[in-house]
Design goal:
- The chain is of the alpha/beta class.
- The chain is 44% helix and 13% strand.
- The chain has 19 helices and 14 strands.
- It has a 6-stranded parallel β-sheet, with helices on both faces.
- Helix 15 links the parallel strand 10 and strand 11.
Length: 444
């Protein structure tokens, strides 16, 4: 008989995983403790913007015309326990308030609730990003006869559907005598992507937990490295874009994640590297990750440097009474996620220093207003730029790359653009009359 799957937590990760499991042919039941979210998903809508997710959801959610009906949502733990053969835990692990460590309260609550209802013979699969050592501890929470595996997620916002249906690797951490059964079950769950060529890597619990934080730490290091090189280029008169191109041809380095700018943000990289440092300290090996503290520092410093670039562009004086347009609010394109967004952080800093800031983002306006309700917001890039003394490009949406710089120049009070993502065509903007500046790039 085909496996029945539950997904605990229907946020960004859980909603995507649930819809993808239904697409792979499984009967799926998603659970969330927020009734409004369950009601929204049950109607075929998603509480966030992710390309392709709502279409995939509507294709399978029960009650939607023409759907397979393989996907349902509930708030009932009892229903989850009676239904599921495999329970995927996809709840959030945010940074603790005032600390670097990871807040495990949502994971702990999910496991406690599952322990009370899961049937003997079922398998719990952790997908949340947790400190190494958590799986072994959580295995002790589950009753005898209920197995545990750890299967970290590697979703990129903007590509989450693709990353779930066609993952570049599937990592499964198993343990003890029950490890063989857990591996067999998850090979059945992921039979489709494995058949299409996705590598299936089997490890122990600690290694599986470390894969996600190690990968994110490496990516954060690469981003902060090129941003550090941009600081050197600023001082020495070099061109960080050409530098990145040149070193990227080295196959040992590669050219991905080598675009200098205002740095990384979002709900994963910043909190994951901080939680990794905190956990290393708990394990007595904090010196192994001291470099991550500087990576974090370089990243956060970029935001202040962009503020100072904007101040310099306005003559080096106060922001008081000056109009600043900010193109971008989300931490990356193809998302409505503004968590720890460098774009919003810069906009907020300038606003707090007296600048009249107007923000436009293709998808993040509603979430941005919740975080910074006192900023100004425009319905288009053109309206944001109108009468601006300086324009800051801070999220690399395709829409911004395709703007007509001549049209914007006619609307701006002063055609000065600061490209905080090194993504605009400098020559095209300069030809349209703009003074163009980017971090680590020549001014001419």
């Amino acid at each position: 008989m085909a496996l029945k799957i539950t997904v605990i937590g229907t946020g960004y990760l859980g909603a995507t995983h649930a819809a993808a499991m239904a697409e792979m042919g499984f009967e799926v039941l998603g659970l969330d403790v927020v009734p409004e979210k369950v009601e929204l998903l049950a109607s075929g809508r998603v509480p966030m913007f992710e390309p392709g997710l709502e279409e995939l959801l509507r294709k399978h959610v029960a009650g939607t015309e023409g759907s397979t009906g393989r996907l349902r949502f509930t708030t009932s733990w009892e229903e989850v326990g009676a239904f599921g053969d495999v329970h995927f835990v996809c709840v959030n692990t945010p940074q603790k308030h005032g600390e670097y460590g990871c807040d495990m309260s949502y994971v702990d609550a999910a496991f406690a609730s599952l322990a009370a209802v899961a049937r003997a013979g079922s398998l719990v699969v952790g997908k949340s990003t947790v400190p190494v050592g958590s799986a072994e501890r959580l295995a002790g929470v589950l009753p005898e006869g209920v197995g545990l595996a750890w299967n970290p997620e590697f979703l990129r916002e903007g590509f989450a559907v693709q990353d779930t249906l066609r993952p570049d690797r599937i990592v499964v951490g198993v343990h003890g005598e029950d490890g063989g059964r857990a591996e067999k079950v998850l090979r059945e769950v992921y039979a489709v992507p494995v058949a299409e060529g996705s590598p299936f890597v089997v490890t122990d619990f600690p290694t599986a937990e470390l894969v996600k934080t190690a990968a994110n730490s490496f990516l954060a290091t690469k981003i902060s490295f090129i941003n550090a090189m941009a600081e050197i280029c600023e001082a020495a008169g070099g061109d960080v874009a050409k530098l990145a191109e040149a070193i990227g041809h080295d196959e040992r380095i590669g050219n991905k994640f080598l675009r200098a700018g205002v740095g990384f943000g979002g709900g994963c990289l910043p909190k994951d590297i901080r939680a990794f440092m905190a956990r290393a300290g708990e394990l007595g090996v904090d010196q192994a990750l001291t470099f991550l503290r500087e990576i974090d520092s370089i990243n956060m410093r970029r935001r202040g440097q962009m503020v100072e670039m904007a101040r310099e562009a306005l003559g080096g004086d106060s922001f008081l009474g000056r109009r600043v347009a900010v193109l971008g609010a989300t931490f990356k394109p193809d998302s409505d996620d503004v968590r720890d967004s460098p774009a919003l952080n810069v906009a907020g800093q300038i606003h707090l220093q007296g600048g009249q800031v107007t923000v436009y983002d293709p998808k993040g306006m509603e979430n941005a207003r919740k975080v910074f309700p006192t900023l100004g917001y425009a319905d288009s890039a053109l309206e944001a730029v109108r009468d601006a003394d300086v324009v800051l490009h801070l999220t690399e949406w395709r829409e911004f790359r395709e703007l007509d710089p001549a049209e914007l120049a006619a609307a701006a009070a002063s055609p000065v653009v600061l490209d905080g993502r090194n993504a605009l065509d400098a020559e095209r903007w300069r030809a349209a009359g703009w003074t163009y500046r980017a971090m680590g790039r020549p001014r001419a």
